[in-house]
Design goal:
Distance between the termini: 36 Å
Radius of gyration: 44 Å
Number of helices: 22
Helix content: 55-70%
Shape: extended
């Protein structure tokens, strides 16, 4: 069936043997034309039949997410060609994923330990190098002082010599105090606080030396690069040592052993360097092995990921089926299009044969009064338009679909506001890029805005083509007119053309064949002429589209067999709208055809204030006053026509229905599908609330009567936005491009061109496009669809593997 009405649907019951249930649901997922109904809605997820299998799939999905994270950290990406590999049994896949996870976790743990040891040895090597420099310089200083003391002893004493020098030099070494020391590294940002705490805790009985490490060091604990200082703390006594060690632990300072012996220092540096090279080689081999493992996983990742998602969705769907009494079969119910009946039965037969089941599945159509889901078969061209309509509300089952008309009217109304064939060409070229590269771009992850633009590429293409068409009518190319279809019909009175803007032009040729004559642009009457043209054109387009909406309400009522809506909604609405604004549209067309100078504002105002007065010079045709009186009376009659009869007739129908005089039987078609019984205005066997129905009808009547005025005025946005777009384009051209050209300077001209391009793209091609798009959207949702579209249905959501999201868990 076409897009005008949704596909006929049928409620189906399936009875599937256990042995073929999994394969049947899998084939349904490939088909994507069956929407299952949850028959176990009262059960929690843990009480359902296949809860254990879903838990297994969830665990496998967790392992696959772990593999994806590891590949991302390692800089790998899953191979896109892997999804077409052979099918792997779910049990084998579960075992394989478990083995790979254990192996990868073990490799990560070993690599982490080796890396930590490597970082500790690097720090230890830094401590040995920096601290040895400090001890070497200290010993050199001590040796120099010792030689100086000996020189004083051997030389002649002087008045300046210390009195106790000889006693100091002769002190017994065994009585001297031995100082201990602790060396390590501490973060540079913590060093000041570290030094202060040490001083306070030991009451100043420590000697602290530090050496700055130039390059950041990888911390063994956190694994982050940190700027550190090498420190050596000298102390006296075990109590001070204990305090210093606790402070080091509190500040995260890593301590390393150190010796005063220079020979042992060089030996330790050599040993540490050897261990570092061995660890580096081991880590490199481990990283290579890990990279090979991740690459192997990457080749199969997409296939495994897709298979796990499919299996999980299959078991989710199986949980929606109920067990029969014998517990040997699964019973399921769901909706499917009538055209898909043969495909579904073929899938059931194929599943029975492939699973070697001795009992076949049973397919039977059920009759119901429940409203079916709405399903439209769309393609990549019509899907974006259908999404625009569905954003307002999903169509009721087999209600007229506005998307059929929106395909044309939406881009056309956009173009009326955006009319410039230069800007239209720019939009068209941009959409051609998306269309020619759609296969490549559809596989990529785009941003939110780019994703939205790419999804609506065909709508934007239609908007661009219609903009080129209306731009040719307006004769505007970046606000510049061209004589594309012949020479202008007007010319100046003299050769100098000085009086063109004061006296005006004279007509010397036939009328310009297509669109606005280029001579109108820049003349003194350009703005009044274009304002009048676009304003009247907006009213004509608005009244035409609103009439289309009311006509579609007639087809809805006729399709559903609702005569009340035809006679007491469609007819009075058509009379009311066309008695007022249809008549205004007629006056506009007559004025255009006759060239009359009549004031239409005056005609419409006094049609209500004094309909019997003589029209005088505002009369456009014979019998106009009589016609106005008749139309005014018809508009006045249409309001109570909409308001009063329908509630009373609904009440009468309700009484007759309960007396058994009027029943609407369920009708069946040849293919055992059903046609939904519609009871308009009735509530089954519930009590009929006349007051509620009457108030609802009153609101509907007032809304339509006031909406006819406000909606017609709303279409004037077509005129307003078209004028704004034209004036903005003219300002950018005259005040930027022509102004820069007038300076006769290349640099200023280049700057002017750049500013003109950015202003055109940023304001006219982006902001104005978005603005016109939103206004066209409003005109369709409010002014057009409100006339006939209920939009209270629900979307057909079949079980389909194609709809599985990549981010689904």
């Amino acid at each position: 069936m076409d897009l005008l009405r949704s596909e006929p649907m049928q409620l189906v019951q399936l009875i599937i043997p256990f042995e073929s249930a999994h394969r049947t649901i899998s084939y349904f997922g490939d088909l994507g034309l069956f929407q299952f109904i949850d028959l176990n809605a009262e059960k929690s997820p843990f009480q359902r039949t296949y809860a254990a299998q879903i838990k297994r799939c969830g665990e496998m999905a967790r392992k696959l997410r772990f593999f994806r994270d590891q590949m991302t950290k390692a800089g790998f990406s899953p191979s896109s060609r892997s999804s077409a590999g052979p099918y792997v049994n779910l049990d084998d896949l579960e075992v394989k994923l478990g083995e790979l996870e254990v192996e990868l976790v073990e490799m990560n743990a070993n690599t982490e330990k080796l890396q930590r040891s490597y970082n500790e040895l690097l720090e230890y090597k830094l401590v040995l190098q920096k601290a040895s420099q400090f001890f070497h310089s200290a010993q050199s200083t001590a040796a120099a002082q010792h030689r100086e003391f000996e020189a004083h002893i051997l030389g002649e004493g002087s008045v300046d010599s210390p009195l106790l020098l000889e006693q100091e030099m002769s002190t017994d070494p065994s009585n001297q105090v031995k100082l201990g020391f602790i060396s390590g590294l501490v973060g540079r940002e913590k060093y000041v606080a570290f030094e202060r705490i040490l001083f306070r805790a030991t009451r100043g009985n420590v000697f602290l030396r530090q050496v700055v490490v130039e390059d950041p060091v990888i911390d063994p604990v956190s694994g982050d690069k940190v700027e550190k200082n090498v420190f050596v703390v000298f102390y006296s006594g075990e109590r001070a040592k204990s305090k210093i060690m606790k402070i080091c632990d509190a500040f995260g300072a890593n301590r390393y052993p150190f010796t005063e012996d220079l020979g042992k220092q060089y030996q330790m540096i050599t040993e540490v360097s050897g261990k570092l090279s061995e660890l580096k080689a081991t880590i490199d081999v481990g990283q290579l092995h890990r990279a090979n493992l991740l690459q192997t996983i990457g080749y199969e990742f997409e296939q495994w990921n897709l298979q796990v998602k499919k299996e999980k969705s299959i078991y989710h769907t199986l949980n929606m089926l109920s067990l029969d009494v014998t517990k040997k079969c699964l019973v399921g119910e769901g909706w499917c299009p009538v055209f898909a009946r043969d495909q579904i039965q073929n899938a059931l037969q194929r599943a029975t044969m492939d699973s070697n089941s001795q009992v076949g599945a049973i397919f039977q159509v059920l009759q119901t009064k429940e409203s079916p889901p709405t399903y439209f078969r769309t393609n990549k061209f019509t899907s974006a338009i259908q999404e625009i309509v569905d954003a307002y509300g999903v169509a009721k089952y087999q209600e007229v679909n506005p998307g059929v008309f929106t395909i044309v009217t939406f881009p056309f109304l956009f173009a009326v506001m955006f009319g410039d064939w230069g800007h239209g060409i720019c939009l068209f070229l941009a959409t051609l890029y998306f269309i020619f590269r759609e296969k490549k771009l559809s596989r990529q992850k785009l941003g939110d805005i780019m994703e939205m633009t790419f999804g609506g590429r065909y709508v934007i293409m239609m908007m661009a083509l219609f903009s080129i068409y209306t731009g040719l009518i307006y004769n505007e190319f970046f606000s510049v007119p061209f004589e594309l279809f012949g020479r202008s019909a007007y010319s100046c009175r003299g050769s100098t053309c000085r009086d063109a803007s004061t006296v005006g032009l004279i007509k010397v040729r036939d009328t310009y064949p297509f669109g606005v004559d280029p001579k109108w642009h820049g003349s003194r009457s350009e703005l009044p002429f274009l304002n009048s043209l676009k304003m009247k054109m907006s009213i004509l387009l608005g009244v035409t589209q609103m009439n289309l909406g009311i006509v579609l309400s007639y087809y809805n009522a006729k399709f559903f067999g609702n005569d009340l809506n035809i006679w007491y909604q469609f007819v009075p609405q058509m009379i009311f709208l066309n008695s007022l604004f249809g008549y205004l549209s007629l006056l506009i067309i007559v004025k255009w055809c006759t060239g009359s100078q009549a004031d239409l504002y005056h005609v419409m105002i006094y049609m209500f204030l004094s309909p019997t007065d003589d029209l005088g010079e505002n009369q456009l045709f014979f019998g106009q006053r009589f016609l106005q009186i008749v139309l005014l009376l018809l508009a006045l009659v249409a309001v109570p026509w909409m308001l009063f009869p329908k509630p009373f007739l609904l009440k009468k129908q309700h009484k007759e229905r309960h007396r058994g005089q009027s029943y609407a039987p369920v009708q069946y078609t040849d293919d055992d599908s059903f046609e939904l019984e519609i009871d308009h205005g009735s509530h089954g066997h519930e009590e009929f609330e006349f007051s509620e129905v009457f108030v609802h009808q009153l609101i509907h009547t007032i809304e339509f009567a006031l909406g006819a005025v406000s909606n017609t005025a709303s279409y004037l946005r077509l005129w307003a936005l078209s004028l704004a777009h034209s004036e903005l384009s003219s300002v950018f051209y005259e005040k930027v491009l022509l102004l820069a050209w007038g300076f006769n300077n290349v640099i200023i001209l280049i700057i002017g061109i750049i500013v003109f391009i950015f202003a055109t793209v940023g304001v006219l091609l982006v902001m104005e496009t978005l603005s016109a798009f939103l206004h066209a959207l409003r005109l369709h949702w409010v002014e057009f669809q409100s006339k006939f579209y209920e939009g209270d249905g629900y979307r057909f959501s079949p079980f389909s593997f194609a709809l599985i999201s990549e981010d689904e868990e």
